[in-house]
Design a protein that fits this description.
Layout lengths: L16 H4 E2 L7 E3 L1 H4 L5 E7 L4 E5 L2 E17 L2 E9 L9 E4 L2 E7 L5 E9 L11 E3 L5 E5 L6 E7 L8 E8 L4 E2 L4 E2 L11 E9 L5 E8 L9 E8 L3 E4 L6 E3 L5 E9 L7 E2 L6 H4 L18 E2 L1
Parallel strand pairs: 11-23
Antiparallel strand pairs: 1-19, 2-3, 3-9, 4-8, 5-6, 5-7, 5-8, 5-9, 7-10, 11-12, 12-13, 13-21, 14-20, 15-22, 16-19, 16-21, 17-18, 17-20
Length: 309
């Protein structure tokens, strides 16, 4: 149950495919806010952070800080240190360290002796009850590791801020896809409120690779009759540090042969759920997984026994 207003559908969105993919700037930083994405809530800022740190002034917004690569990152709010994130060398060698804060007014993040790469997701507080009032440190032992799919659709899903987490609108997962495999498969969407099947969720895909020169394929397509607008179909060759906006529609991903791929999904919505619906032309593949063997390359890393799904 929730005590906030529930949007019936994602806002109509007429961004062109070229506007849905955002490349990092000369410093490796990529940013998007709700106005640019033309949705309601989610903002994301990702890139390098050094010892002198970076600051955000976003009172009234919750925030989640995730280390993508690097170690010994300090998170402070209003001049008070609230967490030290030990970190990892890269997403393929360790599970994530993260911190959630209830209010991002005066948020500051500083790296240790070496530069780190972080992602910060924020969303406006809704006023719902049950949200934590103090910052929460998320260690690898707090992350639920799921091996999802089977065969060439096997991938590792690390649940960082799950629906049961005492956040407000934010949800965070990261997905590691072995070379040659598909993820976000079968294609799914979450742009209408049709519970318990589907909820409205804004989402970004933020990419990294075991080999920085690598690339992968992201598709985002909207069928005819969508409440979000006229049919739309975009396919991108995505690279290290880039971000794609999932405003609505189906959004499958494929890692190319020879290169392991990673993406962070930051999401925000009115409901604390990951409910989605699948492309009816492709949903049948889920039933086939029961007779298939999961790819033995995953999990890449696990702090505890992974669950399957």
């Amino acid at each position: 149950m929730t005590d906030v207003d529930i949007a019936a559908a994602a806002p109509p969105n007429d961004l062109a495919p070229d506007e849905l993919r955002i490349r990092p700037d000369g410093e490796g930083r990529v940013t998007v806010d709700a106005a640019r994405a033309r949705w309601r809530y989610l903002s994301v800022d990702a890139g390098p952070v050094r010892r002198d740190g970076r600051s955000w002034s976003a009172p009234g917004r919750e925030a989640a800080v995730v280390i993508l690569a690097g170690r010994d990152v300090e998170v402070s709010v209003g001049g008070r240190r609230v967490a030290v994130l030990e970190g990892r060398d890269d997403p393929f060698s360790g599970l994530p360290w993260a911190a959630w804060v209830p209010d991002a007014g005066g948020l500051q993040v500083r790296a240790g002796a070496r530069e780190a790469v972080i992602a910060v997701a924020t969303a406006p507080r809704s006023g719902r009850s049950g949200v934590a009032t103090e910052p929460i440190l998320i260690t690898p032992d707090d992350v639920t590791v799921e091996v999802r799919g089977a065969g060439s659709a096997t991938r590792q899903v690390n649940h960082i801020v799950e629906p049961a987490f005492r956040a407000d609108r934010l949800l965070l997962v990261e997905v590691l896809t072995p070379a040659g495999n598909w993820s976000s498969w079968p294609p799914h969407k979450h742009d209408v409120d049709d519970m318990p099947t589907e909820a409205v969720l804004e989402e970004v895909y933020l990419y990294r690779f075991r080999r920085p020169e690598a690339w992968a394929i992201q598709r985002l397509y909207r069928p005819a009759g969508s409440a979000a607008g006229s049919p739309r179909d975009g396919v991108w060759v995505v690279r290290q540090g880039e971000l794609v906006l999932v405003t609505d529609g189906y959004h499958p991903f494929a890692a190319v042969h020879g290169d392991d791929a990673y993406y962070l999904n930051a999401l925000a919505g009115d409901r604390r759920t990951m409910a989605c619906s699948y492309d009816p032309d492709l949903e049948h593949v889920r039933a086939a997984w029961a007779g298939m063997v999961p790819d033995p390359r995953v999990p890449f890393s696990s702090a505890s026994s992974p669950r399957s799904g």
